[in-house]
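Running co-folding for NAP.
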Amino acid sequence: MRNDRMVLRLATIGRNGQTAQAIAAACASNPAIHLAQADRAQADLRDPASLARFIDAAKPDAIINAGAYNLVDRAESEPDEAMRVNADGPFALARICNTLGIPFIHMSTDLVFGGDGDQAHTEDDAPNPLSVYGRSKLAGERAVAAANAFAITARVCWVYSEYADNFVSKMIGFARMQPRLKVVSDQVGPPTYAPDIARALVDLSLRMHGGARDLPRLMHLAAPWMTDRASMARDIMEESRRQGGPFAPVDPVPTSTFNAPARRPLNARLSGARATALLGLAWTSWDEGLGRSVAGVLSRPS
Ligand SMILES: NC(=O)c1ccc[n+]([C@@H]2O[C@H](COP(=O)([O-])OP(=O)(O)OC[C@H]3O[C@@H](n4cnc5c(N)ncnc54)[C@H](OP(=O)(O)O)[C@@H]3O)[C@@H](O)[C@H]2O)c1
């Protein structure tokens, strides 16, 4: 017979996304965690009643919100939709968790920052989002904090992995179709491996469920190395070629080349130093994470 007091019943909003899949992998071999994940058909952040129904059925001890409206450029023309998913939904979730007295962890982004200077942004820096997406995520952070004094918001940045759609899968997909790739070289940030983020989120859930009340309410979960997008793309292409996948040379270009609808901060450096020290996080090296990510992407049915 299972002893339920020993088991953490963890629920995530989002099931098919990159972080949600990495959380599933992180929990798969842990018998002390029972994971329930909702895709947007089961728990839609635009529909508080569907969130309540899912939580009522799953009866979780802790919830991680890994769902978001992540279409950064499209958000410029869909600001209401971005607000509903990224601010109103998290507010509803935070309120439900507050009422139930269970831990709630919400995810946010470096795009709440304006990206001035060349220093890594810490949790103390003032946000100044440049885009509708960034404003919707900042509104979400604030809504969560207002609804639930114990909720934690974890900001992440430049997440990559073998799961779902991300910069690695995008570059490999482009290389299948284009002879050369134009990639921006003036945006700098910390490529962070999704399984590392997942492990940190699960660890936080366990600590909160275990009664920890002194954790900071805002944390940056980011790897300690920085690079630019064009250099990342070059590494991805080299690793793809090494593993027998597609290759295309990378031409570095400035961000202004693309005239994208949403402005992006050139300085996407996020300092994860505080959370790394506090939680004792270990970050998978870029080379190792890249190798696993490329292998995972190349093994997908095309
Ligand atoms: N990827 C990055 O580089 C990055 C950078 C900074 C911040 N973040 C933040 O990290 C978090 C996780 O991002 P990710 O990269 O893992 O996301 P992702 O791979 O883009 O997946 C998005 C997730 O959001 C869910 N979703 C979308 N609309 C929804 C709705 N209306 N209701 C409920 N769920 C909805 C999707 O549900 P389904 O499971 O049904 O598909 C999916 O699980 C987000 O808060 C994001 O803002 C990511």
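Result summary
The first strand starts at residue 8 and ends at 13.
The pocket of NAP is lined by residues 13-20, 39-40, 43-46, 66-70, 85, 107, 109, 137, 156-159, 164, 166 (CB under 6 Å).
Job closed.
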